[in-house]
């Protein structure tokens, strides 16, 4: 893919320190991050519960005690299966670089930057080396959250130590995605990009099929074999996720959000919202409002 505009546009961290950590507590099993990809590497640790984590065309059931390493440019999606707690460390691989060109840079960092070398997808924290990695991951979280003097040195050192452990255990992988598999990934990126750009308008099955130059019937089979749901189901879930984001802004009315996210029938929008989020849009707004008020209450 040459069009960088098709990638996620969020900045994780800043120019001087391109790293950010996200921690998520999902008590209602409705966590959902739609398919996307980015230049950054992402390390997702499942602390509690279970998540379905889709990496390119493979779905993994993420369980407590597992670490998922999402390589640069990997198409991925995360869906809550149970109530869960997980953390995501997202960083530019450039943060690993050294100004001096040495063995570390030539043997490991440069191949990662050029996508010639990949991290393994899953680490079980119950193995000996997994526990070593978990120690560094915990240190990284603590240093990032506490922000004591030198925290950025410590977090960078933890990333490099994780990389060193993987290298020592010979777990780094040459990037040899089969041509057929890569073709599927590129097709999925085209489809998702089309949905991202057009979700607020009418989207038909033929529109999506044209993105891939497949006929509608074969396209449906292709899409469901990878995503696990029909194209229309995926579009509806994507729209509801966008609607939930809009509803978190108190000034947005439910009727407006319905139309802004591509639904042209309010009853159908409400039905789908409850199906994917477990509550009505009005109830969702009330929950968000109550949480906002409680966060702003002065401490007793």
From TrEMBL:
Cross-referenced SMART domains: HTH_ARAC
Gene3D superfamilies noted in UniProt: Homeodomain-like, Jelly Rolls
Annotated Pfam families: AraC_binding, HTH_18
UniProt domain HTH araC/xylS-type: residue ranges: 189-287
InterPro entries: AraC-bd, Homeodomain-like_sf, HTH-like, HTH_AraC, HTH_AraC-typ_CS, RmlC-like_jellyroll
GO function terms (MF aspect): DNA-binding transcription factor activity; sequence-specific DNA binding
Keywords carried by this UniProt record: DNA-binding, Transcription, Transcription regulation
Domain of life: Bacteria
Name assigned to this protein: AraC-like DNA-binding protein
Organism: Mobilisporobacter senegalensis
Lineage, opening ranks: Bacteria, Bacillati, Bacillota, Clostridia, Lachnospirales
